[in-house]
Amino acid sequence: MSKNTAYQGQCFLDKVLELTGDIENSFAMSLLNEVAITDDLVLGKEVKASAPSKNKIVAFFDEYNRPATNFNAIQQESIGKNGIGYMIIGKNFIVG
């Protein structure tokens, strides 16, 4: 598969970083691909790339090393509501 192909766990900004080396190219690539930068990528979709601006970062990513930071609503639901904002003193927030 090509480097321009969307893989599991990748969002559009991951592909921008992988293909151009700089997030600042996100708007240029969104216009080129006719998608919003917040759209979910379909697995296997070919993403058109604008010109790379940071070649060292582009060279860093390869077949075995790709950015993949996509986090969807289903994953959010599986985590549940945790953290200090949901704790109750004396019940699940123990001081001492």
Question: What report would you give on this structure?
Answer:
- The structure is a single chain.
- With 96 residues, the protein is mainly α.
- The chain is 31% helix and 0% strand.
- It contains four helices and no strands.
- The longest helix has 9 residues, at 12-20.
- The radius of gyration is 18 Å and the shape is elongated.
- The model has no long low-confidence stretch (mean pLDDT 85).
Order of helices and strands: HHHH
Mean pLDDT: 85
Q: Number of helical runs? A: 4
Which regions are unreliable across 5 or more consecutive residues at pLDDT < 50?
A: none
Give the percentage of residues in beta strands. Answer: under 5%
Structural class label: mainly alpha
> Describe the biggest sheet?
none
Radius of gyration: 18 Å
Global outline = elongated
Portion in helices: 25-40%
DSSP E strands, number = 0
Instruction: Kindly report how far apart the N and C termini lie.
Output: 55 Å
